[in-house]
Amino acid sequence: MIKFFIHISLFFVLAGMSYQYYQMMKESIFLEFQAGFLLQTQEFKTHLQERMLAYESVLTGTTGLFQASEFVERVEFKRYVDALKLDTMFPGIQGVGYSAVVLPQEKDTYIAKVRAEGFNSFVIYPATPRDFYTAITYLEPFTERNQRAFGFDMFSEPIRRAAMQQAMDTSTTTISKKVKLMQEKTSDVQAGFLMYVPLYKKNRIHETLEQRREHIQGWIYAPFRMNDLMRGLRDYEYKNLDIEIYDSEEVSDKSLLYDSFAGTNTSLLNTKMEVKIAGRSWSIFVKSTPALEQKLDYSKAELILVFGILFAMFLVYIIWQLVNFKEFAEEKTKKANEELKVYKKQLQILNKTLEQQVEDKTQELQKTNELLEEHIVDLQSLNAKLTKAKEAALQAAQARSNFISSISHELRTPLNAIINFTDQVIEDFDEMLEDKELQEDTKAFLGRVLINSRHLLQLINDLLEFTKIEAGKMDYCMEENNVNTIAKMAYNNTYSLLNGTNIEFYFKPYETELIGFMDARRFLQILLNLLSNAIKFTDKGYIELRTYPEAEYIIVEVEDTGKGIALEKQKMIFEPFMQVNNTDNGTGLGLGLAKRMCEDMQIKISFISVEDKGTIFRLMLQKK
């Protein structure tokens, strides 16, 4: 019960570590997602400011048209605005216009001049008398929507007048507060604003406030419908952001200029920014949308959690098996000690009996001495067995330590490879869908994962076989079999491994049947292991499998012209986890398993090897 509790505790500790790493990874993914959101909001702010500067440049350039000409005619103004290609180069702007200052005494003359250009219904409105008038004279493109503003005196409306006054007094570009544009119809009404650049009379000084007010000629301006303006920004970048823009620091429906997702309240991420545009402050609230939040992908963290729990289960299972093996060895030692105690007790009884017999029956001394000598011989044999059992127990303990160290390394190596390559595939998954070269790299990564998975599976299979042998649970079906038939099967099963190489593969069976006593399936497994090793370590030359009789034995040999086995490794070649070459991707258990199965079936196995020349493995079976 205690052992079970320890293993369960170990599992929960490992699973808890995996869960902690999962939480850390989730937090890292969220922080990265949050950083991307903030970066996108800053990009939006910069993009908006750059776009508004571009509009300001358009209006400033238009003032240059007036400064460079004695008089800008309507056709000349239209050609200039058409050349700007507002729809493609400056999306969102409704048009570029010119609002002229008209003195009361010049009003009628001015209206008559405009009507003479073909606009018979032109008036300056509203008609209420005032100190001076302003009239929208030019507005291109001269669409049906823009024609609604033709002749309107913007200075007569308080919000527009405040922006125009500020632009005139400061000689800077100014935008108005939120207004309803004259271009609006009864449907699809949008919040709007206007941008003004003052135009002063040519060759006049306007350094002081009085000079600027005295020499003002008019304003170059542009009307903006807010939704149309933002559509030009959002079409290709900001579809996953919920953006609200207010015409001041006050957050209310009255000051709301734009809301991309009206009605949305809750969001995972949000931020507030202040932006200065043409002398006016806008408050911008940016929130994440459900579409953006769906991109918050925790699958990588969840995958790590699943793999961590599976690894914890697997590791606890392996440790459980190792502990059982340790208890098996300890039980053997305990049993041997108990037998020793029994024999010692029997010896004590025998000694007492002998003493009594010496006293009572001197005549039978010779016979008693002979009997005593026989018991002494038995005791010596028993002591030898006990000594051997003790040595075997010590060797088993050392082997167990080596086994745990080796298996930990062998299991960790392919598992680390599988985790690393899987992590790389997940990280590159989104880019892989569009990048053909990355798809090829991903296929290579998955191929490496497959190779390491197969290697791990082979290691587990060999471990299970090795554990069976160590526990004495390997079953053998010993019977008479034709060695040539089994050798032919091994040859056929491994011949395909040489496809694509220049290595010759020969099979030379003896001309008559060779009947041996063995387990056919295990004997085939031994031959397949020897042949696959020969193929693995042979780059050129040949591999030969042959059978023949010799005295009272049947000989089976596997010869190759491969790398051979280094002299310093030949003594350890049958040890578990021993590999011929450091670059070998095998489990290192194959030859160890072959050696133990040969011993169990009373088959002699040996080899002769010369480094860089080749190797011959020999199996010797007793004849029928």
Present the secondary structure layout:
Layout: H1 2-68, H2 74-84, H3 86-89, E1 96-102, H4 107-115, E2 133-140, H5 144-147, H6 158-170, E3 174-175, E4 192-200, H7 209-214, E5 216-225, H8 226-234, E6 241-246, E7 256-259, E8 270-277, E9 280-288, H9 290-293, H10 299-360, H11 365-427, H12 429-432, H13 436-470, E10 479-482, H14 483-495, E11 504-508, E12 515-518, H15 520-536, E13 542-550, E14 553-560, H16 567-570, H17 590-600, E15 604-610, E16 614-622
Parallel strand pairs: 11-13
Antiparallel strand pairs: 1-2, 1-5, 3-4, 4-5, 6-7, 6-9, 8-9, 10-12, 13-14, 14-16, 15-16
How many distinct helices?
A: 17
Rg, nearest Å: 48 Å
Oligomeric state of the chains present here = single chain
- Portion of residues within helices: 40-55%
- Give average pLDDT, whole number: 84
Which structural class best describes the helix and strand composition?
Answer: alpha+beta
Low-pLDDT stretches: none
User: Major beta sheet, specifics?
Assistant: 5 strands, antiparallel
Structure explained in plain terms:
- The chain has about 625 residues and is of the alpha+beta class.
- Helices cover about 55% and strands about 15% of the residues.
- The chain has 17 helices and 16 strands.
- A five-stranded antiparallel β-sheet has the order 2-1-5-4-3, sandwiched between helices. It has a five-stranded mixed β-sheet with strand order 11-13-14-16-15.
- Strand 15 and strand 16 form a beta hairpin.
- The radius of gyration is 48 Å and the shape is elongated.
- The two termini are about 50 Å apart.
